[in-house]
Write a structure and sequence with these properties.
Elements: E1 2-5, E2 11-13, E3 31-33
Antiparallel strand pairs: 1-2, 1-3
This protein binds zinc ion.
Length: about 45
């Protein structure tokens, strides 16, 4: 999973923010989860 920095828009991997939520590039604390791609409707079995 990846996070996007709200401040600079940098991509931060979850591994790197597991200890402390912080942007590697600008030090910003506001990160939000990168949304997974929207999957087209899947037929349920
Ligand atoms: Zn940043």
């Amino acid at each position: 999973m990846e996070y996007i920095c709200f401040n600079c828009g940098g991509t931060v991997k979850a591994d790197e923010v597991v200890r402390r939520i912080r942007c590697l590039y600008c030090g910003g604390r506001i990160l939000y989860k990168k949304r997974p791609k929207i999957v087209k409707s899947v037929k349920a079995r």
